[in-house]
Amino acid sequence: MSARVYALVNQKGGVGKTTTAVNLSAYLAQWGYRVLLVDLDPQANATSSLGVEKFHVQQGTYEALIGAAPVGTLLLRNPKWNLHLLPASPHLAGAEVELVGELARETKLRRALQPVLERFDYIFIDCPPSLGLLTLNGLVAATGGVIIPVQAEYLALEGLSLLMQTLRRVQSALEPNLDIRGVVITMYDGRTRLANDVVREIRDFFGDKVFRTLIPRSVRLAEAPSHGLPISVYAPRSLGGRAYAMLARELLEGDGLSAPPVRPGQPSLAAQNR
Ligand SMILES: Nc1ncnc2c1ncn2[C@@H]1O[C@H](COP(=O)(O)OP(=O)(O)O)[C@@H](O)[C@H]1O
Ligand SMILES: [Mg+2]
Q1: What is the pTM of this model?
Q2: Of ligand 1's atoms, which has the minimum distance to the CA of residue 217?
Q3: Parent domain of 211
Q4: pLDDT, tens only, 10-61
Q5: Could you say which ligand is closest to the alpha carbon of residue 11?
């Protein structure tokens, strides 16, 4: 089986792309799936969230994109979590400009990942907060579709029509099969009426593409990256930890794969989504 490749996309920053990429990766890896996280953002937040000091990274996504080295030689493996990372290397910041003149510039990442597709069950691509060339590479590589994190806040849908336009452009010009795998509602605060209105609005707009799992606003989720740990290790019992476990489960089930049984005391999907 070839890896399911998903890109985490939203040109808005701070909506939870990196948090979702890191924590979905960590849970699926913990459950025995073979997972690769690709850090496609020059800010290298996914890299540092996993405890990899970005100033120590010499080679990574940039070298993969320009074909300087085979991806297989660029991966970092965390043996404790069974998780592979293609880290963001310093030169990634210049890639947006450098790649402009290249032939087939939007398909670099897809071609770079080709040789390792059989080695993984899941590949998550953490895209930067823009719709530039790096993100286009992420979209073209995302043969399983895109996962769009949306913050449950005022103006949540603003900017999404531009994202939809970009998806359609990529569909017609580069990758006809590009699809939305799902929309994840993040930083949800169930105590506010606004958050519930926004959830309704997002569900009206995206219909059944929206994951049932809501990711709550959670201090633990915000703290975990500063310890270089995914929530599955840092605080699995916190609300945020359980929410990402639930999201990972929902993703697996949608993909026709099996998830570990829910332990007693864990909230069920149905309970969370009244
Ligand atoms: N559910 C959440 N609750 C609280 N803080 C969160 C949550 N999700 C993300 N954060 C924090 O919000 C900030 C932005 O999240 P991040 O995942 O980096 O967004 P993006 O990658 O879209 O820019 C980070 O500091 C992150 O730790
Ligand atoms: Mg990010």
Answers
A1: 0.95
A2: 3
A3: 4-272
A4: 999 999 999 999 999 999 999 999 999 999 999 999 999 999 998 899 999 9
A5: 1
